[in-house]
Specification:
The chain is mainly alpha-helical. The protein has a domain of 51 residues. It has two helices and no strands. It is elongated. The mean pLDDT is 87. Pfam families: PufQ.
Length: 73
């Protein structure tokens, strides 16, 4: 008896396009930017100095870490 389930070809899984990734990245960046600006502006009051990253770099970092999580889920 032959086992047909051993070497069956697997179909290609759906991969998100680059355009879809860029749209999600942009949306998350735009959402993170106001919070990054508020955190950057409040840092001197709370910690006594400005953080090493600016608000745009912080928002880019957040978008860069959140967007792949969405596409890997």
């Amino acid at each position: 008896m032959t086992n047909h389930g051993v070497d069956t070809p697997k179909g290609r899984c759906h991969r998100a396009s680059r355009a879809e990734y860029k749209v999600f990245f942009t949306l998350i960046f735009m959402l993170a930017l106001p919070f990054a600006i508020l955190g950057w502006a409040a840092a001197p009051l709370l910690r006594g100095g400005f953080p090493s990253q600016g608000p745009i770099a912080r928002a880019l970092e957040e978008a860069g870490s959140i967007t792949p999580m969405i596409f890997l889920a």
